[in-house]
Amino acid sequence: VKPAFPFGFGLSYTKFEFKDFTAECAQDQVAVSLRVANVGDYEGDAVPQLYVSFPSLLPAKRQLKGFQKLRIPKGGKADIVFIIGQEDMSYYDEEEGRWISATEKGETVTVSIGKSSADLVWSKALSCGPASVTK
Asked: What tens digit of pLDDT does each residue of 49-86 get?
């Protein structure tokens, strides 16, 4: 059964533009940043959402790992940074009886920003090993 509305869906009286995306691995964390601009005619609330996916997460497609509600005036902008750690890129392995991170397994982690789970406006695949730095 297809849901009437995707997870994270919301209505607004104004329009927002998500832009200037970056994603960077540093040590055991990933920082994802973006700018949200209110390009509509009214003040409003935007809720950018951060999703994470990696091969071992299957059968799930992605998981919500962060969101932030931003009140932005007409013509205004706001910058936001999401920081996620190894626990946000992990899954429980029943055979091993422990949590394992995707980076521990050498898997590529995809971070995505969206307005809802079905409206992803940007994604980036990262290989974040213990000594890697990716921009």
From this structure: 999 999 999 999 999 999 999 999 999 999 999 999 99
Exposure pattern of 56-80 as b/e (b: 16+ CB <10 Å)? bbeeeebeebbeeebebeeeeebeb
In sequence order, the β-bridge partners of residue 18 are: 36
CA distance 5 to 10: 9
Nearest to 123 by CA among 21, 29, 39: 21
Kindly report the CA angle at 134 between 133 and 135, in degrees rounded to 5? 130
- The reported pTM is 0.90
Strand 109-116 to 77-85 pairing: unpaired
Residue bearing tokens 């429980």: 92
Residues 117, 19, 47, CA angle at the centre, nearest 5°?
40
Percent of the chain that is helix, strand, coil (3-state, to 5)? 5, 50, 45
Find out whether 47 and 67 touch, Cβ atoms under 8 Å: yes
What would the two tokens of residue 36 be? 């949200």
Q: How many residues does the chain have?
A: 135
Question: In 10 A of CB 49, how many CB atoms?
Answer: 20
